[in-house]
Amino acid sequence: MSLLSDLSERVPGRAHGPGATEYDSGRTVFAGVGEPQAVVRPRTAQEVAAAVALAAAAGLPIAVRSGGHGMLPVDDGLIIDLAEFTAVEVDATGLVTVGGGARWGAVAAVLGPHGLGVSSGDTRDVGVGGLALGGGIGWLVRGHGLTVDALREVELVTAAGEVLTVSETEHPEVFWALRGGGGNFGVVTRFVFQAAPADGLVGGHVRFDSSDVPAVLRAWRDVMRSGPDELNSTLMLMPPFAPEMPSGPQLGVALQGSEERLRELLAPLLALSSVTEVSLAPTSYADLLEDAPPGRPPLQFVGGNGFVPDLSDVALDAIAASYNRPVPTMVLLRALGGAFSRVAPDATAIAHRDAEALLIVNGVLPLDATDEQLAAAKAGSDAALAFTSGVYGNFAVERGEAIIAAMYPPATLERLRRVKAQLDPGNVFRQNHNITPAG
Fold it and tell me: How far apart are CA 333 and CA 235, in angstroms?
């Protein structure tokens, strides 16, 4: 019998093959379209367990779709689409229970009326599951840490078909691994987060021309170094894509406080002669989240990301040089520190807690770029990324042992491998930044 027919017997009405609407939606992700043997859309953790057991017995890879933004297209294996796991509920203590298939826009919409938020991604459409398991760097990161730092409990379906409740007190080593180890350990059907106060926000953007990028970088670093934890920001250096898209430095900022206080904190930046636009106003956490782009643009991005432990003048000069080159280049700096850095490096699988910022550098080239163009773009990006100490997996498109070693320090990786050997010795969950089981 085929996987599809087996699934149809075990989870009637929930398994879908080619030609079905559910199949087409489940196999389509931000990065492209795959050709899995089947897409299953279960309603309960027990149905997830049945699907996992069938695919594991057949030796097929399993991919979990919790939103699709961070997934790669899947061929031949099984996609477990958590589209039915979208409930979001919050209690009087601020504990918010979120289905593994929910998206962050829905979470923000439920929490908003309560003046609460969970540090999440930057877009409404990103799935909770993939982002949370990989770490989760969002608008509250300096005040409240990563998404995984707010995680209190998960419901996990393992490769063996068990349904576990995992927390600091139940299966604590598994709970440690889930906070940054990605989807290597099973299917999370339910998350429980501790939401934090997110009311009284003011935010917006400041735009600059490109006349003095180094001055913008230094002023931004100094503002964030001396600023309170309640101040969060991202500085982007945008290339000239098109006339309707502004290029140059662009600061996105949010503060729990008043507009007057925000302008006071940003004064060194607002005083720069390169400022072209200032737009600051009261806002909400939900409104800080943007709509995700509709699909991958017809371009290729050459570069990568990393945690920067010291935004020294030398590092900032290298970042400015990576932007000011013939290859159109996008640079993003997300301020860290604060609550992010007060978590011990061995408390979760995200160990690079000494970082001042997350840096992303990508040369932007056409799909038909030559090998010489690709090599030049990579060299320029690598020069800036040389100042990083490790990679953030949620933003890394590469796969393989080299990128895994860059994501996790040796002791962290060995600990993750031991948990993997305990929960998934056959490496059923390998359609990810794969952590192979300890031998």
Answer: 5
Closest CA to 325 of 401, 378, 399, 389: 378
**Cα 117 from chain centroid (whole Å):** 17
Q: State how far the Cα of 85 lies from the Cα of 42, in Å rounded to an integer.
A: 8
Burial class (CB in 10 A: 0-12, 13-18, 19+), 92: exposed
Q: Which residue has the tokens 């990301």?
A: 305
pLDDT of residue 72: 67
Helix (H) or strand (E) holding 87: none
Using an 8 Å Cβ cutoff, are 364 and 301 in contact? Answer: yes
Span 232-258, pLDDT tens digits: 999 999 998 666 678 899 999 999 999
8 A C-beta contact, residue 100 and residue 121: no
- Model confidence pTM above 0.70: yes
Token digits of residue 6: 């087996």
Which domains, ranges and CATH numbers included, belong to the chain? Answer: 3-81 (3.30.43.10), 88-197 (3.30.465.10), 201-395 (3.40.462.20)
Per-residue tokens: 329: 């280049």
Averaged pLDDT, 64-86: 82
Amino acid, res. 199: D
Residue 15 CB neighbour total at 10 angstroms = 26
